[in-house]
Amino acid sequence: RVLESTLHTLTQNPRAMERLARERLGYSRPGETVVKFVSPQTNANSALIK
């Protein structure tokens, strides 16, 4: 049901499609500057080093 709702929203609402493209795919309009903030990743080995 959630998938159906999401699909309906994306096919009926162009702004929803644009938001998805911007957030998930990093798309931008010509002339825009995109700034991404990335969370620091923890080192998988840090739990082993004590």
Overview of this structure, please?
The mean pLDDT is 85. This protein has helices at residues 2-12, 14-25. It contains two helices and no strands. Helix 1 packs across helix 2. By secondary structure, it is mainly alpha-helical. It is flat and about 40 Å long.
Average pLDDT, rounded to a whole number, is 85
Radius of gyration using CA atoms only: 18 Å
Helix count equals 2
The portion of residues assigned to helices is 40-55%
Which tags fit this structure?
50 residues, mainly alpha, 46% helix
Would you summarize the structure shown here?
By secondary structure, the protein is mainly alpha-helical. It has helices at residues 2-12, 14-25.
SSE order and pairing:
Blueprint (H helix, E strand, L loop, with lengths): L1 H11 L1 H12 L25
Helix pairs in contact: 1-2
